[in-house]
Design brief:
single chain; D-Amino Acid Oxidase, Chain A, domain 2; 14 helices; FAD/NAD-bd_sf; EC 1.1.5.4
Length: 477
């Protein structure tokens, strides 16, 4: 998020003074690291939690369409930066990969068929394929059917134009570009506090972690792109917009295949249905091909868990230290309303390796436990906030928080996260830089040709832009 915003602003206003402070020694090692992400290329093609069945029995597509729109903005911006030389070879951060949804049982198969019918009517999803034929599913992803009962009803939907994105590599490339353009990059520097100075500028207390030195840095505008750490910094700023908001941390683990023969048999992202109602998006099971630093891998998970730290390299005191008088009641209400979710997370934490492999076999029946190693994923901090009735609710998703005068902004929440970073940063530009926006529009439209349009409402424009970005990002080969 931070490097995306920095790269946008540097191109829009090359003479502005920009600084980036990162607690760790390199960029992209926390939430953006590929093994800390639960999903790496959200287009809403395969994630079933984005297409819920409503009380009337219909399958909703609005959320999926919104996320797909945002991901196509990401593709356009990355394409622009590849053409400009801001990013390197597309293969270093994005690769073509089919996206699939896979379920079993009559109720789930009926749902997936209804979802297929609903999605294929939308231009952004019109190329969806669907089958209940195990032989055809085997041709798409053979690990799903090997060893499976031939009489079991299964169903699968597939998009051939999905992608896998290494957001760690993407983040590092943007950071390197910023450094080459004169942006001040300070790694190993922790921002510990934010407050208003007497001149109205923001003052940040920054600690050099290796030298132990502290200094104060001031700025007219601050973006807090600190992942789970954003809540504490926004709270320290004292802005009204952060009051009443709390954080609910969710951790995760993956099983990663160690057998190269198994890895080579699977070439897709395959998502299923969550095992419990109201499970966090990062707990939705998936058998997932990934390309990390150019190497092909296969993982399954995640297995949700609970820890009180807000960052993978954070403190166990993060959760208790985030409690304030203004968010205590909403947080307590969320706890009372989500006892089933908390119980589920506790059960996930205590699962043995054998139990994890048994869950893997729902997707891959022939899986052998010794061929998989456990990987600890990153932390996600789901927002807790008041609803329209003033009661605390647990909110899944990503939310941009901006101060009333637009001089500060921060990002809270999780999925779909990094996949939609450009759209979120465009929203930030609109909220925080209204005086400059009109002058920026021609450049923004050059960066993202669909800026100001909805591709789902303009099928011809969608096809043109999709073809152009596929060519630039080398997604057809």
């Amino acid at each position: 998020m931070s490097t995306t915003l920095g790269t946008l602003l540097q191109e829009l206003e090359p003479h502005w003074s920009i600084g980036l402070f990162e607690t760790l020694d390199q960029p992209g090692q926390e939430s953006s690291d590929p093994w800390n992400n639960a999903g790496t290329g959200h287009t809403a093609y395969c994630e079933l939690n984005y297409t819920p069945r409503g009380a009337d029995g219909t399958v909703g597509t609005a959320k999926a369409a919104g996320i797909a729109e945002q991901f196509h903005v990401s593709r356009q911006l990355w394409s622009h930066w590849v053409e400009q030389g801001t990013l390197g070879s597309p293969r270093t951060f994005i690769n073509a990969l089919p996206h699939m949804s896979f379920v079993w049982g009559d109720e789930n198969a009926d749902y997936l068929k209804d979802r297929y019918e609903a999605l294929k009517a939308e231009p952004l999803f019109s190329h969806i394929q669907h089958t209940e034929d195990q032989a055809e599913i085997e041709s798409w992803a053979p690990l799903l059917t090997g060893g499976r009962d031939a009489e079991q009803r299964v169903a699968a939907s597939k998009f051939d134009n999905g992608t896998d994105v290494d957001f760690g590599a993407l983040t590092r490339q943007m950071a390197d570009h910023l450094g080459s353009q004169g942006v001040e990059l300070r790694y190993g520097h922790e921002v510990q506090d934010l407050s208003r100075g007497s001149d109205g500028r923001w003052e940040m207390k920054v600690k050099n972690r290796s030298a132990g030195e502290k200094r104060t840095v001031s700025a007219r505008f601050v973006f807090v792109g600190a992942g789970g750490g954003a809540l504490h910094l926004l709270q320290s700023s004292g802005i009204e917009e952060i009051k009443g908001i709390g954080g609910f941390p969710v951790s995760g683990q993956f099983l990663r295949a160690t057998d190269s023969e198994v890895i080579e048999q699977h070439h897709a992202k395959v998502y299923g249905l969550a095992t419990v109602k109201n499970a966090p998006p990062m707990s939705v099971p998936h058998l997932d091909t990934r390309f990390v630093e150019g190497r092909r891998s296969l993982m399954f998970g995640p297995y949700a868990g609970f820890s009180t730290n807000f960052l993978k390299q954070g403190s166990y005191f993060d959760l208790p230290f985030s409690v304030r008088p203004h968010n205590l009641l909403p947080m307590m209400q969320v706890g009372m309303d989500n006892t089933g979710l908390v119980s589920y997370l506790m059960k996930e934490v205590t699962k043995s390796h054998k139990q994890k492999v048994e869950q893997l076999r729902d997707f891959y029946p022939d899986a052998e436990g010794e061929g998989w190693e456990l990987v600890h994923a990153g932390q996600r901090v789901q927002m807790m906030k008041k609803d329209a009735k003033g009661r605390g609710v647990l909110q899944f998703g990503t939310e941009l928080v901006t101060g009333g005068d637009g001089s500060i902004a921060g990002l809270l929440g999780a999925s779909p996260g990094a996949s939609t970073a450009p759209s979120i940063m465009f929203k930030l530009l609109e909220r925080c830089f209204p005086a400059q926006l009109e002058g920026w529009k021609p450049k923004l439209q050059e960066m993202v040709p669909s800026y100001g349009h909805l591709l789902n409402e303009e099928p011809k424009l969608f096809e043109e832009i999709s073809a152009a970005t596929s060519e630039t990002l080398q997604l057809d080969s």
